[in-house]
Amino acid sequence: MSKSGQNIRLGVFVFTGLFLFVLAVYLLGNRQNMFGNNVKISSVFKNVNGLQLGNNVRFAGVNVGTVRGITIINDTAICVDMFINERTAQLIKKNALATISSDGLVGSMIVNIIPNEIPILESIETGDTIHSISKIATADMLTTLNTTNENAAMLTQDLLRITGAINKGEGLLGALIKDQELVNDVKQSLNNLQETTAEAKITMHKLNLMISSINMDESVAGMLLNDKASAEQLGAIFDNLEVSSKQIEELTKNLSEFSTAIRHSEGLLNQAIFDTTLVRSLDTTLKNVEEASDRLNVNMEAMRHNFLLRGYFRKLERQEAREQRRQN
Questions:
Q1: For 274, what's the count of Cα atoms within 13 Å in the CB-facing half-sphere?
Q2: Burial tier of 113 (Cβ tally within 10 Å: 0-12, 13-18, 19+)
C-alpha cells in the first residue's frame, strides 16, 4: 500500500509537471507566434536602436507579431524580419510604415507598424517589404534634453549677468533705469517727435488742400498732369535742354583745351597774346602801313592832276560813266 501511494503521488507530480510544461510552452509559443499561421514580412532600417530577436511587433498599439530576424546588409541598412499573425495581417496594407520605438520611457524596443494616410486595398503577404521611417530614440531625446538643460543653464547665467549690469546702471538700459536725466531727455525727444509728427500731418493736410484746389481742366498744372501732348512736349524740351547742356559742356571743354594749348605753345598766336614786345611791334607796323596808305593816296591824287596822266584818268572816268549808264 505504501509503494502504491508513492507511485500515485509520483504519477500525479509528473502529470502536473508535464501539464505545466505544456501550458508554459503553449503560452510562450502563442506569445511568440510559434503556433498558428503567420505572415513573414521585412523592413529595412538605418539603425535598429537596440532591437532584439523576440521583441514585439505592434499594429495600432496591439501586439500582432514578433521579431524573427535581424540581418546587417551594409553600414546603412539593417533588415528586420517579422512574423505577423495571419488574421491581423489582413488589416495591414502594403503601404504601411514601420518604425522602431521603446515600450515606455525605458522599456525594451519594439517595432510599430503605422497605417499609411493613403488608403489602398491590398494587404501584406509573405515576403513583402514595407517602408520604414525614423523616429527620435529615447537616448537621442535624453541627449537633446541634456544639451537643452546646459543651454538653459548658460542662458540663466547670461540673464543674471545682464540683470546685474542693469542694476548697476551699465549700458543704455541700465542708464535708462538709473539716470533720471537721460530718462527726461528721452521723454523730451519723444515729445519733439510727437510735435514733428503733428506738424507733418498739418503740412500734408495743407498739401492735400492745395492739390484739390488745382483746376485740372484749365490750369497749367492740370494741363501738365492730364494733357499727354503737353507732357510729351515738355519731355522733348527737357531732352533738348539736356542735349544743349552736353554740347555746352563739350564746347567749354574744347575752349579750355584750346586755351591750354595756346598758353603752352610757342606759336605766333601765343606770342601775340602774351608777348608785349610783339604786340607793340605789330602796333607800330600797322601805324606805318596806315601812314604809307595815306601817303599813297596823296600821291595818287597828285598823279590824277598831273598833265602827263590827266588824260588817262579822264578816259577811265568816261569808261566808268558809260558802264554805269549801261547798267542803269
A1: 11
A2: buried
Q: Is 195 left (phi over 0), alpha (psi -120 to 50) or beta?
A: alpha
36, amino acid identity: G
- The pLDDT > 70 percentage for the chain reads 74
Q: Residue 270: what pLDDT?
A: 61
Q: Which residues of the chain have pLDDT under 50?
A: none
pLDDT of 36 reads 54
Per-residue confidence (pLDDT) for residue 80, from 0 to 100: 93
pLDDT in the model for residue 44 = 92
Residue with cell 517602408: 131
